[in-house]
Every structure is written in C-alpha cells, then in structure tokens.
C-alpha cells in the first residue's frame, strides 16, 4: 500500500486549500485541477480496507486520464510533490512517477522531469530528478536523470539540465546562434518542363 507522508501529516483538504490559494483561488485553472487530482490520488492509494482503496483508485484513474488527455499535464500519484506547487500553464508537462519536488516551486508549460532512459535500465526512483524548495522552472525546460536541484534555483526557458545544480543558481539555455540568410534561387518548374 502506498503512503504519502505529506498527505498523512497535513490532510487532503488542507493541501488542496494551499494549492487553491497558490493558483489565485481559481478552481478552473488546469494546473490546480491536475494538482488537486494528484493530491486525491495519493490519498486514495493509501485508504483501507482494500475495497475502499479500489473504489477511490478507480475514480482517480478515470479523472487522471481526463486531466492528461485534456490539459496535457501528466503527474503520477507516486511522485513526491511538496506544498504549494504552482503549475503556471497547461500543456506538455510530464512529471515522472519517481520525481521529487520541494515546496513553493513553479512549473510552466512544456516542462519534463524524467529519467535518463529505460533502455539503459534506469527505471527506479534513484534515477529521477530531485528538486529543492522554491525552484522556478521556465517554459520548455527539461530535467533528466539522477539530478539534484538545490533550493532557490531558477531554470530558464528551454534549458536542458543533466547535472546537479547548487542552491541559489540560475541555469540558462545557450543563446541562439545568428546565421546569415542566403537567398536560394529555385528553378522555375515551367522552365524545367520546357527543357525536357
């Protein structure tokens, strides 16, 4: 049976209230809905007896598919997510089942927290990212593998993080390269037909 220490200690309703306040008290935001469902999933998977756990888990599975397919936010109930996570926008957000996220973090659209690769046998929790408290992740950032991110870290848009990051750091993607644009001359299709 799965147990989430945070849910057991603070309670499901208290956590959802914190997340609600963190999402501007707007229950229609996809980020809040996904997070509230995650909280419910961690609670449902720890119920006793087995029949109650099975009943609540079926509801969770159905709603989880709806959130994933409608909003593009995939969060597994086995991930370890701290308090007051803010999911800024919907779309293409994947949080691996073994990822750990600290308190007061921000995640924007297109973010992936995942393992390095199943084909290399890296599937356990020891291969998933661990984020500290107050980590701010920009649009399209990817954090892959056995990576530890310290407290108060900013990860810029489209950054790919494959190594540990110390506390109080900022990680940015390389700046774009400027290349001269050459004008290509394309042969006229009618001229080619005439030559044949």
Write a compact overview of the structure shown.
The chain is α/β, with parallel strands linked by helices and 196 residues long.
Question: How does this structure look, described?
Answer:
Its EC number is 2.3.1.30. One of its GO terms (biological process) is cysteine biosynthetic process from serine. The strands form 4 sheets. Strands 1-4-7-10-13 form a 5-stranded parallel beta sheet. Strands 3-6-9-12-14 form a 5-stranded parallel beta sheet. The protein has 196 residues and is an alpha/beta fold. Helices cover 31% and strands 16% of the residues. The model has no long low-confidence stretch (mean pLDDT 88). It starts with a helix and ends with a helix. Helix 3 (30-44) packs antiparallel against helix 4. The chain folds into 2 domains: 1-83, no CATH class; 92-173, Hexapeptide repeat proteins (UDP N-Acetylglucosamine Acyltransferase, domain 1, 3 Solenoid), CATH 2.160.10.
């Amino acid at each position: 049976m799965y147990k989430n220490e945070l849910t057991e200690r603070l309670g499901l309703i208290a956590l959802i209230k914190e997340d609600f306040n963190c999402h501007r008290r707007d229950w229609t935001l996809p980020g809040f809905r996904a997070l509230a469902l995650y909280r419910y999933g961690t609670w449902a998977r720890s119920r006793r007896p087995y029949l109650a756990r099975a009943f609540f888990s079926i509801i969770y599975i159905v709603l989880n598919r709806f959130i994933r397919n409608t909003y593009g936010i995939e969060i597994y109930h086995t991930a370890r997510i701290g308090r007051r996570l803010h999911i800024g926008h919907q779309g293409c957000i994947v949080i691996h089942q073994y990822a750990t996220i600290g308190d007061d973090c921000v995640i924007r659209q297109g973010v992936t927290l995942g393992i390095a690769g199943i084909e290399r046998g890296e599937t356990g929790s020891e291969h998933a990212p661990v984020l500290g408290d107050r980590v701010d992740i920009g649009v399209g950032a990817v954090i892959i593998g056995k990576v530890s991110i310290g407290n108060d870290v900013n990860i810029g848009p489209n950054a790919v993080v494959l190594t540990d990051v110390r506390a109080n750091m900022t990680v940015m993607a390389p700046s774009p390269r400027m290349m001269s644009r050459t004008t290509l001359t394309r042969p006229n299709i009618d001229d080619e037909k005439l030559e044949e």
